[in-house]
Automatic annotation (TrEMBL):
<comment type="similarity">
    <text>Belongs to the SecG family.</text>
</comment>
<dbReference type="Pfam" id="PF03840">
    <property type="entry name" value="SecG"/>
</dbReference>
<dbReference type="GO" id="GO:0015450">
    <property type="term" value="F:protein-transporting ATPase activity"/>
</dbReference>
<keyword id="KW-0813">Transport</keyword>
<dbReference type="InterPro" id="IPR004692">
    <property type="entry name" value="SecG"/>
</dbReference>
<keyword id="KW-0812">Transmembrane</keyword>
<dbReference type="GO" id="GO:0005886">
    <property type="term" value="C:plasma membrane"/>
</dbReference>
<comment type="function">
    <text>Involved in protein export. Participates in an early event of protein translocation.</text>
</comment>
<dbReference type="GO" id="GO:0065002">
    <property type="term" value="P:intracellular protein transmembrane transport"/>
</dbReference>
<feature type="transmembrane region" description="Helical">
    <location>
        <begin position="54"/>
        <end position="76"/>
    </location>
</feature>
<keyword id="KW-0811">Translocation</keyword>
<keyword id="KW-0472">Membrane</keyword>
<dbReference type="GO" id="GO:0043952">
    <property type="term" value="P:protein transport by the Sec complex"/>
</dbReference>
<dbReference type="GO" id="GO:0009306">
    <property type="term" value="P:protein secretion"/>
</dbReference>
<keyword id="KW-1133">Transmembrane helix</keyword>
<keyword id="KW-0653">Protein transport</keyword>
<feature type="transmembrane region" description="Helical">
    <location>
        <begin position="7"/>
        <end position="25"/>
    </location>
</feature>
Amino acid sequence: MNLLVNVILAAQILTALGMIGLILIQHGKGADMGAAFGSGSSGSLFGASGSANFLSRTTAVLAAVFFVCTLALAYFGSTRPQSTGSVLETVAPVVVPDAGSAAAIPGNVAPAAVPASGAAEIPAK
């Protein structure tokens, strides 16, 4: 199953890169008007309109393959069993201290022991 997901992911990445390259190679709609008035050359490897048909059809095929790969990855991602579960789904136990203890207030430190005489002893130097 993991191998199949990796193959589909590789195919999706390759089709995405192919589509990016083909889209950047294609001429815009305004490029044909410039060639009609003499600026630029209208002749190409595929002919006057052959490159537009070939590149647009290849882009459409790559887009369809990309779409199918995306749907397959979404399907395999949603049906994969979760062995350990998500960290957000696990609930940590909440410990509630007694209301009378000094530790009940966050940041509170328990008071130091006072000698029986009531006066604090100052250490001698």
